[in-house]
């Protein structure tokens, strides 16, 4: 655990942009936390593949019901009943495998989150006093709560979503080509534009996301200081001043969130 946890001392309290090599190194270090739960992760992967396969096979069953049953001359309602039953079985299988995958992914992610926080807290115990003089306690708390939860969610759920969506995309494209390649070619022509739009979105959303995390750390830091020092605040009658400062800091956080939402809206519009 110390390999990844040691980044806390080096990164300080401010989020920083990461190059591709640095990001890959940190992801590899974080994935080491998954090793104790590798069996459940493997089952989750198998369930994900099964859920993807059943989702892709559903339209093929509908096509078979139409081509072999309804569109046949004369119509063969026995084929319709057969393929409707197949479609229903695929739907149930998709629901079951998706549920198991979601449960196992959540189970593993929760354990990794707990292990990572324990490791980081143990690392914080060994840091010198200078670290705590340079960094506000509330910002460090934000790292142990908000940032770690977002990080685990990105590393645990992100690759799962990426792999599943890629498989669904490739499988859907293959099915579309099999059904009607003219329509497939017309549909796939939008992919280059989507790829460019996604790359632009990743650039701007990454900057907006880092700013959001920084502002959230400031909000958490201000809360921690005001609540822990409430006696001093009341003794010196600083309630109004602290309230105005918190409103200002929270406004910066809201503005950073707005920028992230705008970036997402632009991608959806495109």
Strand content: under 5%
Class per helix and strand makeup: mainly alpha
* Oligomeric state, counting identical vs distinct chains: single chain
Helix coverage percent: over 70%
**Compute the gyration radius: what is it?**
25 Å
Q: SSE order in H/E notation? A: HHHHHHHHHHH
CATH topology of the largest domain: ABC transporter transmembrane region fold
N→C terminal distance: 42 Å
State mean pLDDT (0 to 100 scale): 80
Features of the shown structure:
270 residues; mainly alpha; ABC transporter transmembrane region fold
Summarize the structure in words.
The chain is mainly alpha-helical and 270 residues long. It folds into two domains: 1-186, Up-down Bundle (ABC transporter transmembrane region fold), CATH 1.20.1560.10; 190-270. It is 87% helix and 0% strand. The protein has eleven helices and no strands. The chain has helices at 2-5, 7-11, 20-31, 38-70, 77-125, 129-134, 137-179, 181-188, 191-228, 230-235, 239-269. The longest helix has 49 residues, at 77-125. The two termini are 42 Å apart.
């Amino acid at each position: 655990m110390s390999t990844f946890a040691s980044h806390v001392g080096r990164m300080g309290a401010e989020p920083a942009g990461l190059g591709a090599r640095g990001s890959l190194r940190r992801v590899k270090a974080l994935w080491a936390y998954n090793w104790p739960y590798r069996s459940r992760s493997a089952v989750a992967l198998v369930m994900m593949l099964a859920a993807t396969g059943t989702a892709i096979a559903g339209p093929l069953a509908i096509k078979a019901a139409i081509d072999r049953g309804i569109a046949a001359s004369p119509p063969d309602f026995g084929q319709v009943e057969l393929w409707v039953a197949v479609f229903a079985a695929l739907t149930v299988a998709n629901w079951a495998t998706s549920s198991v995958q979601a449960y196992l992914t959540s189970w593993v992610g929760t354990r990794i989150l707990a292990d990572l926080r324990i490791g980081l807290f143990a690392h914080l115990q060994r840091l010198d006093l200078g670290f705590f003089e340079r960094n506000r306690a509330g910002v460090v708390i934000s790292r142990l709560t908000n940032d770690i939860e977002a990080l685990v969610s990105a590393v645990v759920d992100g690759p799962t979503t990426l792999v599943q969506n890629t498989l669904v995309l490739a499988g859907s494209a293959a099915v579309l080509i099999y059904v009607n390649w003219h329509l497939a070619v017309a549909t796939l022509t939008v992919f280059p534009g989507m790829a460019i739009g996604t790359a632009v979105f990743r650039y701007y959303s990454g900057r907006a996301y880092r700013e959001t995390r920084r502002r959230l750390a400031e909000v958490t830091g201000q809360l921690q200081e005001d609540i822990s020092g409430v006696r001093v605040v009341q003794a010196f009658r600083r309630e109004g001043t602290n309230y105005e400062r918190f409103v200002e800091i929270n406004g910066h956080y809201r503005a950073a969130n707005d920028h992230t939402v705008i970036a997402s809206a632009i991608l959806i519009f495109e």
